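Late entry, evening session. Most of the bench is empty. Finally got around to the prediction I had been postponing all week. Sequence below, unchanged from the version circulated by S.P.
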Amino acid sequence: MILNYLPASLGGHHTGGDSGLASLGSRIAGSMTGILGSAFGAIGTLLVVLIAGLYFAMSPATYANGLLRLVPPERRPIIRQLLLRAGQTLWAWVAGQSLDMLVVGTLSGIGLWFIGVPLALALGVLAGMCNFIPYIGAIMGAVPALLLALSLGTRETIMVAVLYSVIQFFEGNVLAPVIQRHAVQMPPALTVLSQTLFGAILASPD
C-alpha cells in the first residue's frame, strides 16, 4: 500500500508527483486516528467497568434490593435466595480461579528458573496474574518470557514456548476443570466440552 503512494523517484509505483505522499499521509493520519480512537474507547470502557464493579462491591445490598423492587412481592423471597446463591457461587469461582492462577504462576516460575531465564519469579507472577484473563491471558503472560528467552538463544526460546504450551494445556484440560468441579460443582467434562464448543462458535466467521 505504501509503494502505491510513493513517487517513482523514491522507488514507489506512483507517477503523480507529490500528491501520492499527501494521499499516503492522509491515509496514515486517518488510520492512526482510528487506532487511537479505538484504544481510548477500550480504555474508557475498562475504566467504566472497573468503577461500576467497585461500586457494586462497596454496597451490593443496595443494588440487590433495587433489583428486587422490579419483582412482584410474592416472588421476592425466591429471587433473593437466587441472588445469594449466585453470589456464593461467584465467590467460590473466584477462589478456585485464584488457586488456578497460583498453580500456573508457580509452575511457570519454576520452569523458567530451570531453563535459566532471568527474572523467573517475576515472570511466574505475571503468568499467574494474566491467567485470570480467558484465552489472551496465556499469550500476554508468555510474551515477556519469550522476549527475554530470545536474548539467551534459540534453544531457550523453544524451551520457553514448549513450557508455556504444556502448562496451558494442563491448566485448560486438567487443572481448571478439576478445581472448578470442587468450587462450583461443575463436571470437568462439561467444562472442557463447553470451552471447545463455544470457542468454535465464537471463532466461526458466520
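Two things to note before I forget:
The chain has a mean pLDDT of 78.
The chain has eight helices and no strands.
Will write this up properly tomorrow.
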